[in-house]
Amino acid sequence: MPSFITDTSRVFFYGLNQELAQSIWQSVNMPQDVELLLHMYSEVSDGTKVSPLVLKNKHLYLHRMWKSEKVVLDFIRYKSCLIHSEEGKIRKILDFYFGQEDRFDWQKIAAAVALTSQISVISGGPGTGKTTTVAKILASLINLSLSPQCIKVVAPTGKAASRLTEELGLFLQNFILDDCVLENFPLEATTLHRLLGAKIDSQHMYYNSCNTLPVDVLVVDESSMIDLSMFDNLISALPSQARVIFLGDRDQISSVEAGTVFSDICHYSDNRYSPDRCVQLSRLTGCNVMTHEYSDVSSVGNMICLLHKNYRFKIESGIGHLAEAVNRGDIGLVEQVLKSDCDDITYYTITGDSDYHDMIKIITEGYYYYLRKLKEGLGPDKVLNAFRRFQVLCVLREGLYGVLGMNQSIEHILYQEGLISHEMFLDYPWYNGRPVMILHNSKELKLSNGDIGIAIKDEHEQLRVWFPLSNGGAVAIDPSRLPLHQTAFAITVHKAQGSEFENVVLVLPTQVMPILTRKLFYTAITRAKKSLTIYANQLVLESSVRMNIKRQSGLAYQMHH
Question: Which DSSP state fits 290?
């Protein structure tokens, strides 16, 4: 931090643009009391009156953002209370769903937290079992309830909602449940916008504080993707008695719009509970939940559980170790993992554009598998499943190393090798086998931003774009009817958030840039389930691990103090 930034000014001018900050600071004669200076302007208030800007707790807000943050803060503070429950019954149900083995089980503790709180927050990385845990929580809630419950399950994007629907379906297939649970268990997840009844070209929602949602239990997946304004819309529309379970990964990139609500809620939490809460959770689970040396734990901390154990990656997994190393910002450990002989990680150093052609040739081979299935005449559902085995991720949209450049280069190689062909009766860019990603929601076609489909000829040699259904089938749509879309051999890391792929190739830009942060790198790594290939310049790689940008927010401190 440059010397010109005093303790007072540190709050106001913190970020990447230090030269700009210095120029601004000098232009106002470097005052020592910034708050006093700002309060001299009529445009700034403390929130007790309507003004364009609000200065509160050393944070300067736009009035709309301050109001939304206050709504979220009040909701978390007033709702983070424990619910009186029949502990004996809860213990039996938890033992049924999670087992009675004499072992420490964070999933079981997370379930106990959720069953005894009106609001609960469960955070964990990929493979820690968030979805399985919440499915068991929902089954437990249905068992505990004396009457049928209206349960809704939502996610911020259509892609995340589709994946959640699939995972809940797998739970129902693999777990024996009684008829009461089966009748009330949610079978399909929807998007937040659809749940709230978002109106086209409007900020207003059908469901709001005056017209609350008809819901008893709400599960919100991928909560780290939800911005401050949408959090405000959601909690304002909840009835007072509703129980809410927020799921997510606090270490993933935050929402595209302003706010880091989920990360702020989890910020000071490390599974440290108050002494009374430790005793209660131990009784409910049979796990020895230890009281820590200090007991100064906020009520918010008592409703949060961080899942640690990873069930997806083996102990020797390179992907798991790399994600942990990036998350810790340990560049030495990152380099150690990349240089090790892990079967699931391959690392190529890019020294310049001369390596580009070789990279594209290797990457393109990853798409041979689904194209062979297409040529064999397999059904659209099987071709879609084959395509999902492999995905290229980019940080940027534009440029040679961005989505547009990568897609054009991959298409060019596939065309040269005769694996795709632009036939005379098909208008470019359409061809048999073209993968496309939807960029705008379409309620009429039941398509969501982020959905990926593949253009495949039907029995009449007519090109249709096929999209997967939650039941494992596929639906065909005429290309001319699609909303805004783009070729999807390569997609951005942001678009991939909420999705998982068996094999991932991550292509980093060749220059250091602010968008490439530790959280974005971590998010990209954790999209891979089986293998990860990274193409990167060494300097860019190191910079991305070190660049831990945090958005300014007053929520975290106020929520936990």
Answer: P
CB 519 within 8 A of CB 494: no
Give Cα 420 to chain centroid, integer Å: 34
Q: What is the dihedral of CA 277, 283, 285, 287, to 10 degrees?
A: 80
| Residue 431 near residue 455 (C-beta atoms within 8 A) | yes
Beta bridge pairs of residue 153: 219
Each residue of 147-167: pLDDT tens digit?
778 999 998 887 788 888 888
Q: Is the pTM of this model over 0.90?
A: no
Strand order in the sheet with 452-457: 474-477, 463-468, 452-457, 435-438, 485-487
Residue that is written with structure tokens 């108050």 in the block? 274
In whole angstroms, what is the distance from residue 34 CA to residue 58 CA?
9
**In what side-by-side order are the strands of the sheet with 151-155?**
190-191, 151-155, 217-220, 243-248, 119-124, 304-307
DSSP state of 447: B
- Provide the token pair at 550: 């945090």
Lookup: tokens for 459: 């029995």
Query: How many other β-carbons are positioned within 10 Å of the β-carbon of residue 268?
Result: 17
Alpha carbon 94 to its chain centroid, in Å, reads: 27
Q: b vs e for 157-183, b when ≥16 Cβ sit within 10 Å of the residue's Cβ?
A: bbbbbbbbbbbbeebeeeeebeeebee
Q: What is the tens place of the pLDDT at every residue in 41-55?
A: 667 766 667 777 767
Strand partners, 447: 442
Q: What is the pLDDT of residue 34?
A: 62
Q: Is 343 exposed, middle or buried (0-12, 13-18, 19+ CB in 10 A)?
A: exposed
Rounded CA-CA distance 213/234 in Å is 9
Most confidently predicted of 198-212, 291-305, 396-410: 396-410
Question: How many residues would you count in the chain?
Answer: 561
Cα four-point dihedral sign 467, 469, 475, 481: negative
Query: Is the backbone peptide bond immediately before 468 cis, with ω within 30 degrees of 0?
Result: no
Instruction: Decide: 360 and 451 in contact? Cβ < 8 Å.
Output: no
What is the four-CA torsion angle of 440, 445, 448, 449, rounded to 10 degrees?
A: -20
Burial class (CB in 10 A: 0-12, 13-18, 19+), 146: exposed
Helices (H) then strands (E): counts for the chain: 23, 19
Distance, CA of 95 to CA of 475 (rounded, Å):
41
Backbone angles phi, psi at 514, to 5 degrees: -60, -30
**Placement of tokens 């001369």 in the chain:** 354
DSSP H helices, 99-157, are 106-115, 130-144
C-alpha 61 chain-centroid distance = 25
CA distance 417 to 163: 33
Higher model confidence: residue 197 or residue 408? 408
Q: How confident is the model at residue 257 (pLDDT cuts 50, 70, 90)?
A: low
Mean pLDDT for 477-481 is 90
What integer best gives the mean pLDDT of the chain? 81
Return the residue matching tokens 């937290």.
Answer: 113
| Positions of E strands within 234-337 | 243-248, 304-307
